Amino acid sequence: MPGITAVVTGSSSGIGLDIARAFLAQRSNVVLGGRDADRLAKAAAGLGHADRVASVAGDIGSAATGEALVRAAVERFGGVDVLVNNAGAFAPKPFTEVTQEELDGYLAGNLRGTYLTTQAVVRRMREQGRGGSIVNIGTVLVDHAVAGFPASAPVVSKGGVHALTTSLAAELAADGIRVNLVSPGVIRSPLHAAVDVDAFGGLALLNRVGEVSEVTQAVLYLAGAEFVTGHALRVDGGHVTGRAL
C-alpha cells in the first residue's frame, strides 16, 4: 500500500511492531503509538525509514492520545488512511479474584482506548472524504473460552471490541470506511513471554501456536480488502472449529 498512512497502536513491541514493519515494507507511512516513550523511541529507531515513521507516546485510554496520533499523521504525512487498534493487555486470572482496579484497567486499555482512538481517526477520515480502513484486534476467546485459562476481565473488554466492529461497520459504510477485526488464538509474542506458549498448541486443530507474522498477514489483508467490512477474521489454527487429538 504505497503512499498511505497507517496509525498502529501498541506498536513498541510484539504484534504491533511487526505490523508497523510490514506497512513500511509496503512503502506506507506509519505512526507508532505506545505508553512508554523510551521503548517507543527504540522501536522507531530499529525500524529505520525515519522519513516515513512518526511516534506518539501516551495512555491509549485517554482521548488526548488518539487525537495526538491523528495530529501526528496529519502534520507529518498529510492524513490517515488506516488505523490498527492493537494496543491492549491480556492476562489470566480467576473471576472472583479480579479486582475492580484490574477490571477498570482492561476496560480502559482494551475497549475505551479502541473506542476513543477510533473516534479521532474517523473524524479525520470523514474530513478527508476518501474513506479508510480500521482493523481491530480481538481474541478467539470471545467465541470459544478455555476452562483452564480464566480471563473474564480481558475477554469481556475484547468482547466489546468485537461488538464495536460490527456496529461501526454498519454506521460508517456510507462514508466508505471499512471496519474489520482480526481474532487471534494463542500467538508466540511478548504477551506470553512468562509461560511455555507451545504448551497451548493442542488448543488448535493445526496443533501449534501462531506466529506474530501470521497475525500481521491478516491485518494487511483486511486493511486493503476493499469489499470486506464487518468481518472477524480468526487467526487461530482452528481453535474455534475443533481440537487436535
Short note summarizing the structure:
With 245 residues, the chain is an alpha/beta fold.
Describe the structure.
This protein is an alpha/beta fold and 245 residues long. It has a single domain, classed as Rossmann fold (3-Layer(aba) Sandwich), CATH 3.40.50.720. The protein is 41% helix and 17% strand. The protein contains 6 helices and 9 strands, in the order βαβαβαβαβαβββαβ. It has a 7-stranded parallel sheet with strand order 3-2-1-4-5-6-9, with helices on both faces. It has a two-stranded parallel sheet with strand order 7-8. β4 (82-85), α4 (100-128) and β5 form a beta-alpha-beta unit. α1 packs across α6, α3 (63-77) packs parallel to α4 and α4 (100-128) packs parallel to α5. The longest helix has 29 residues, at 100-128. The chain is globular and about 50 Å long. The model has no long low-confidence stretch (mean pLDDT 95).
Write a concise keyword list for the protein shown above.
245 residues; alpha/beta; Rossmann fold; two-stranded parallel ribbon; 41% helix; 17% strand
List the helices and strands and how they pair.
Blueprint: E1 5-8, H1 14-25, E2 29-34, H2 37-47, E3 53-57, H3 63-77, E4 82-85, H4 100-128, E5 132-137, H5 152-172, E6 177-184, E7 187-188, E8 210-211, H6 212-224, E9 232-235
Parallel strand pairs: 1-2, 1-4, 2-3, 4-5, 5-6, 6-9, 7-8
Helix pairs in contact: 1-6, 3-4, 4-5
